[in-house]
Amino acid sequence: MDKHRTIIEPFKIKVVEPLAMLTREQRVPILSSAGYNLFLVLAEAVTFDFLTDSGTTAMSANQWAAMMVADESYAGSRSFVKFEQVVQRLTGYDFVIPTHQGRAAERLLFEAVLKPGMKVPSNNHFDTTRANIEHIGAEAVDLVIEEGRDPTSTHPFKGNIDLAKLEEFCQKERSHIPFGMLTITNNTGGGQPASLENIRGASAIYRKHGIPFIIDACRFAENSYLIKIREKDQATRSVREIASEIFSLADGCMMSAKKDGLVNIGGFIALHDRTWVESLRSLLILTEGFPTYGGLAARDLEALAVGLEEVLDERYLEYRVAVTKYMAEGLNKAGIPTVQPPGAHAVYIDARAFLPHIPAHEFPGQALACELYLSEGIRSCEIGSAMFGHYSDEKGSKNFVPAQMELVRLAFPRRVYTQSHFDYILEAMSEIVAKKSSLKGLRLTYDPPFLRHFTARFEPVS
């Protein structure tokens, strides 16, 4: 696609849905009523919904067709067998446990394996992963490389785990580590990929210390494609070959299939051996459903089986990466800094650099997300101090500890928006740049105990 100026969608559109075209004046009371939290704004009031790429994909004709022949038997459904075989071919793992989404997979795995005081290393744990680990009383430990903490660094694999720190951590804490993880791509750090060399290195360290290695694989195909185009000696390999090697380096994976499964709902755990399988299936039956449907309708399993094949189409992945690159470059030209280099599923605006006059405790990312909505009807997601900031209690005083980065994520749903939509958005960004110094921060009016960003409420700082 680099040969042409125009990005074309490698698909035809058969079904359309109208966009909500509200004015700024109409959006102001909507945002106020939602407590300046875009998670609490109704979708019918959003023009461009970039809140998440999770479960927001447009499914293909083949996926819809597969849903029509689903076997909805409670136990032993042929749709499960089809889904299981696709996952086994993709990952090489024998044991496949379906769940209704990635968060359910996290909860099952952590409840079955973790105990208070245990520690789980990774490059970066995302919000729900961290919350599920901490809810049990364990500790989520982030060991991403230093470049992964710097929005301006152009390191091609800023999702890499720091291998020296991982080795040191495993030596020191071996008795407290039930398993180690790696998230691909690294959502918290700006959707950045991990290199195949780094995954090999992490695998070697985990195996050296006898620690099971679990991959959070929600964007495995995008990570594999970025390896193909960025890593030395990988250009001639197919994305499927690269993905197969990644899975072979680990002992299992868990996946929110609402991302690279190209579906609206679904997830799974897949494991190489059966050590944890019976415990997981018992918990699955208790909370999700029978092991051959795991909280999903068979038609969802059918759509997922097709989606896991379609996502490996390299024309689609080429288009996916081209969109984020196009948007990042367009925002940069308008004067809006973004995390470099752009990944595959989203563009991350560096709100700290864009709004330096708003301190972290007044949530510059959340303030920018609100302005994007008011200005253009864009719903985005703050990944900064509103999501990860916390209060320390030192010597009886509470001090606000900000997040390492103040980001606003524009996560692009798969196969939903066209280039004209993105051009329309970029045309309006100059207005936001012109008024940036007048934007004000926010203060919390309701701070929930877990996963603050989903239900917190804010108000503007006067």
Provide a quick synopsis of the model.
The protein is α/β, with parallel strands linked by helices. The chain has helices spanning 24-33, 61-68, 78-91, 102-113, 127-136, 163-173, 196-208, 220-230, 239-248, 277-287, 298-310, 314-334, 351-354, 364-376, 385-388, 419-434, 452-455, and strands spanning 48-49, 95-99, 119-122, 139-142, 180-183, 213-216, 252-256, 267-271, 346-350, 378-379, 381-383, 390-394, 397-401, 407-411, 442-446, 457-460. The strands form six sheets. A five-stranded mixed β-sheet has the order 2-8-7-6-5, with helices on both faces. Strands 9-14-11 form a three-stranded antiparallel β-sheet. The protein has a two-stranded parallel sheet with strand order 1-10.
What does this structure look like?
- The structure is a single chain.
- This protein has 462 residues and is α/β, with parallel strands linked by helices.
- The protein folds into two domains: 24-53 and 314-460, Aspartate Aminotransferase, domain 1 (Alpha-Beta Complex); 61-310, Aspartate Aminotransferase, domain 2 (3-Layer(aba) Sandwich), CATH 3.40.640.10.
- The protein is 40% helix and 15% strand.
- The chain contains 17 helices and 16 strands.
- The protein has helices at 24-33, 61-68, 78-91, 102-113, 127-136, 163-173, 196-208, 220-230, 239-248, 277-287, 298-310, 314-334, 351-354, 364-376, 385-388, 419-434, 452-455; strands spanning 48-49, 95-99, 119-122, 139-142, 180-183, 213-216, 252-256, 267-271, 346-350, 378-379, 381-383, 390-394, 397-401, 407-411, 442-446, 457-460.
- The strands form six sheets. The protein has a five-stranded mixed β-sheet, sandwiched between helices. A three-stranded antiparallel β-sheet has the order 9-14-11.
- Helix 7 (196-208) links the parallel strand 5 (180-183) and strand 6 (213-216).
- The chain is globular.
- The model has no long low-confidence stretch (mean pLDDT 94).
